[in-house]
């Protein structure tokens, strides 16, 4: 009984992210985004009123995102977390695989250089792998039905980042385990156990510095652009909002770095768009108006596709 209670107590809670610097809804990131949004809206003279805020936060999409946030947390805790490989497991596999063919060189780098190289390698390879998996979710006819759940929203709110089908969550969790475990295994093989990570609030230094404080504006109607030259390197909130415009769904797949979109030909800058954004996926979006629909509609689509094979 005591063991069961201890296990239950240690399980993650839905709002733990408010106090976790590795989560998008960490209170300081939310506060920074809210402050930036307020300044931009007042500077633009958009007439920030209670009526506008009420229409935004009480929209059907906003209510659905809030409800799905709780459901998705439950599914992640009960189903996805137990199924996912751990970073440590992958790292051990990689080290054993390398040791089977080579002797560890244990390179004599300075400790600070090792930590910086590890932090940077983890950031770059993780961001690159997110780009390719995200792009695949759009390009694969077998994966798009699951990712379409996220793009069905016509009102963008910070909680939209959690409107992800469980299958997609599983794929991204496996991606993280493989990439982080692979990088960790290689670095331990090369340098031994002298390994650490430069972090802020427990998150990778580069993610916090380049991404975290404006990340919540990506799923919002507050248009923040970084300027033409910087948006070839970093993904601005305005660029990700373009990605949610149904006219431009095949562009701006990057998570933190727009560099990958630039290199691989999927970059679209705000100056290359026309008119007001058209969020959502059009008339088909009405299929995703409930939590049950978010979970089941992709499965129905896959079932129909299999019948046509």
Please tell me about this protein's structure.
- The protein is built from 12 helices and 2 strands, in the order H-H-H-H-H-H-H-H-E-E-H-H-H-H.
- It is an all-alpha fold and 309 residues long.
- The chain has a domain at 60-213.
Arrangement of strands in the largest sheet: 1-2
- Indicate the percent of residues in helices: 55-70%
Give the N-to-C terminal Cα separation.
51 Å
What is the global morphology? globular
What is the count of helical runs? 12
Tell me, rounded to a whole number, the average pLDDT: 90
Report the major sheet.
Answer: 2 strands, antiparallel
Low-confidence runs (pLDDT<50, min 5 residues)?
A: 1-9
Radius of gyration: 21 Å
List keywords for this structure.
single chain; 309 residues; mainly alpha; two-stranded antiparallel sheet; 2 strands; disordered N terminus
Give a concise summary.
This protein has 309 residues and is mostly helical.
Lay out the secondary structure.
Elements: H1 2-10, H2 27-43, H3 50-57, H4 60-83, H5 87-99, H6 111-139, H7 144-151, H8 166-191, E1 199-200, E2 203-204, H9 205-212, H10 237-243, H11 259-264, H12 291-308
Antiparallel strand pairs: 1-2
């Amino acid at each position: 009984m005591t063991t069961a209670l201890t296990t239950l107590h240690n399980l993650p809670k839905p709002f733990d992210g408010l106090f976790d610097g590795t989560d998008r809804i960490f209170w300081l990131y939310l506060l920074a985004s809210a402050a930036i949004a307020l300044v931009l809206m007042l500077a633009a003279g958009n007439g920030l009123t209670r009526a506008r805020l009420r229409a935004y936060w009480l929209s059907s999409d906003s209510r659905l995102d809030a409800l799905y946030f709780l459901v998705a947390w439950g599914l992640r805790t009960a189903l996805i977390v137990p199924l996912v490989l751990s970073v440590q497991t992958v790292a051990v596999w990689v080290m054993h695989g390398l040791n089977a063919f080579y002797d560890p060189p244990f390179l004599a780098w300075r400790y600070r250089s090792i930590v910086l190289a590890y932090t940077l390698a983890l950031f770059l390879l993780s961001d690159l792998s997110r780009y390719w998996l995200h792009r695949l979710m759009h390009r694969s006819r077998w994966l798009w039905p699951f990712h379409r759940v996220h793009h069905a929203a016509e009102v963008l709110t910070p909680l939209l980042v959690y409107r992800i089908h469980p299958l997609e969550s599983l794929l991204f969790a496996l991606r993280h385990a493989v990439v982080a475990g692979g990088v960790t295994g290689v670095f331990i093989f090369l340098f031994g156990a002298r390994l650490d990570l430069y972090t802020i609030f427990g998150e990778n230094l580069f993610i916090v510095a380049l991404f975290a404080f404006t990340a919540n504006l990506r799923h919002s109607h507050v248009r923040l652009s970084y300027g033409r030259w910087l948006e070839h390197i970093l993904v601005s909130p305005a660029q990700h909002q373009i990605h949610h415009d149904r006219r431009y769904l095949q562009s701006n797949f990057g998570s933190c770095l727009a560099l990958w979109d630039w290199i691989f030909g999927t970059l679209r800058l705000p100056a290359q768009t026309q008119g007001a954004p058209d969020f959502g996926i059009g008339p088909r979006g009405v299929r995703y108006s409930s939590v049950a629909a978010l979970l089941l509609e992709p499965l129905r689509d896959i079932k129909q596709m299999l019948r046509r094979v």
